[in-house]
Prior knowledge:
The structure holds 2 protein chains of 2 kinds.
Chain A: E1 4-7, E2 10-13, E3 19-25, E4 31-37, E5 44-51, E6 54-57, E7 65-67, E8 73-78, E9 87-94, E10 104-105, E11 109-113
Parallel strand pairs in A: 2-11
Antiparallel strand pairs in A: 1-3, 3-8, 4-5, 4-9, 5-6, 7-8, 9-10, 9-11
Chain B: E1 4-7, E2 10-14, E3 19-25, E4 29-37, E5 43-49, E6 52-56, E7 59-64, E8 69-74, E9 83-91, E10 99-101, E11 105-110
Parallel strand pairs in B: 2-11
Antiparallel strand pairs in B: 1-3, 3-8, 4-5, 4-9, 6-7, 7-8, 9-10, 9-11
Amino acid sequence: xxxxxxxxxxxxxxxxxxMTLLCAQDMNHEYMYWYRQDPGMGLRLIxxxxxxxTTAKGEVPDGYNVSRLKKQNFLLGxxxxxxxxxxxxxxxxxxxxxxxxxxxxxxxxxxxxL
Amino acid sequence: xxEVEQSPQNLTxxxxxxxxxxxxxxxxxxxxxxxxxxPGGGIVSLFMLSSGKKxxxxxxxxxxxxxxxxxxxxxxxxPRDSAVYICAVTDRGSTLGRLYFGRGTQLTVWP
Lengths: 114, 111
């Protein structure tokens, strides 16, 4: 099993460009999450999904959109990238909203917006 | 206001030393997680616990629910333990089972 994978691993964008980050999991998990990690800050939740076809906003959703058309994939889109979106993005998934909610993380995507 | 506070922020140790990283939290939790992040790498789960103590090899995690405090101990530290250690808690009051993350502790172990 590959677990949680993310593509691409690295990307450099110019301000105003758009891109999509892809997260895929092969564990049949219902729940998927997108986080961003910035220096000196804890991971912050951008958007999440509790099942195929459903998405919801997290803590820092502005400037991002998501889609979950298939259970195994969770896409994060930046329509018009801004330098403030320079960050490392992590996708995670979990089996259910069990009380403990152990999440499995992807390897991360390092995005730089110039 | 950060729901999860870790200390220290940075920690340097000599190989073989006993290491402790602390985590305090302010929300009611259903579980506490210790995660490890290597440079340039992803994040892996080390422990998930809701009471008492867990041990895996040289790593020990403890939690005191009454005091809202957890510690991660590394015995006989090794340079390969160098990484960022992140404490996270599952918010008991959240229907999402929301995780709150600490800022992480950067550990460097010198040979």
